[in-house]
Write a structure and sequence with these properties.
Layout: H1 6-10, E1 12-18, E2 24-36, E3 42-48, H2 50-53, E4 58-64, E5 71-77, E6 79-80, E7 83-84, E8 86-88, E9 97-100, H3 103-108, E10 116-117, H4 125-130, E11 138-143, E12 157-165, H5 168-174, E13 177-180, E14 191-194, E15 212-227, E16 234-249, H6 250-260
Parallel strand pairs: 2-10
Antiparallel strand pairs: 1-2, 1-4, 2-3, 3-9, 4-5, 6-7, 8-9, 11-12, 11-14, 12-13, 13-16, 14-15, 15-16
């Protein structure tokens, strides 16, 4: 029994930068989404963190050719005459970047484009709360920690965790909700997927579908200071991963895309 739709897993891609010898150093994660503009058409986007793409002239992603297992490295130019081509949120604390992709490049090169429909396959915080999702609900994180990109496939590493805190106060204060999950460098840009739940406490509702709910952008470190017994001064600070991750909700991804292209509303006539 599958918990995560296969299209969700294949929509996740590693993000890297080319080295002088043309090899690729993998630095983060991204995922594809579409925004419908008609019943049959949609605009393609690559979603990642702003800190992953900012200051770079070009990034490299891994895509699959249609109908085969052949993988291709696709280079994406992020600057045109020195101006970034990606869009960000007006709030500087929102670490999300939306890159509009060229549909012609995808079609002409016969590349697969599995993706999240940002309207149909995603839910905002308010939508989740209205459907019974709360602290403790299980989630999956899909990404490429520590540069662990398989040379024969681009399938991400999946980790299971839970929502640690998603209150309105939490999101309003920090722009993020908290996830109890082990994430590491390379997981920046990883999508957070709600795990379907078939059970709930009596009198409450449950959401029996897998949807995109956010994007990982950092983890909260635990720091401990070593103090000299002679001088009583701090001589070393050790930092460890606390296991708590910060994730921006889908709300902000939608807001950025809404600024690029409005939502498609099917005609009722």
């Amino acid at each position: 029994m599958a918990i995560i739709p296969s299209a969700f897993k294949t929509a996740v891609v590693p993000i890297g930068v080319r080295q002088a010898n043309s090899s690729v150093s993998w630095i983060g994660t991204g995922f594809f989404v579409i925004r419908k503009i008609s019943q049959t058409e949609g605009l393609p986007f690559l979603i990642s963190n702003r800190h992953i793409v900012e200051g770079k002239a070009q990034i490299t992603i891994c895509m699959k050719q249609q109908g085969s297992d052949v993988l291709r490295l696709a280079d994406i130019d992020l600057l045109i005459t020195g101006t970034p081509v990606f869009s960000v949120h007006p709030d500087p604390k929102i670490d999300v970047a939306v890159i509009r992709l060229d549909p012609g490049f995808i079609i002409s090169n016969q590349l697969e484009f599995p993706s999240f429909d940002i309207d149909d396959n995603a839910m905002t915080m308010s939508e989740l709360r209205a459907n019974g999702v709360d602290d403790g609900s299980l989630v999956h994180m899909l990404g490429f920690p520590l540069g662990l990109v398989n040379v024969n496939s681009k399938l991400p590493i999946c980790r299971l965790g839970c929502i640690a805190r998603m209150s309105e106060a939490q999101v309003k204060e920090s722009g993020s909700f908290l996830v109890d999950i082990q994430n590491f460098p390379g997981n920046s840009g990883s999508p957070v997927i709600l795990r379907p739940d078939a059970c709930a406490i009596q009198g409450t509702s449950n959401l029996m579908m897998s949807v995109l709910i956010g994007i990982i952008h950092s983890y909260i470190p635990y720091e401990d200071s070593l103090i000299s017994g002679q001088t009583n001064r701090v001589v070393e600070v050790r930092s460890e991963n606390s296991g708590i991750a910060n994730a921006h909700p889908v709300d902000y991804i939608r807001e950025i895309i809404d600024g690029i292209v409005p939502r498609f509303t099917p005609s009722t006539t």
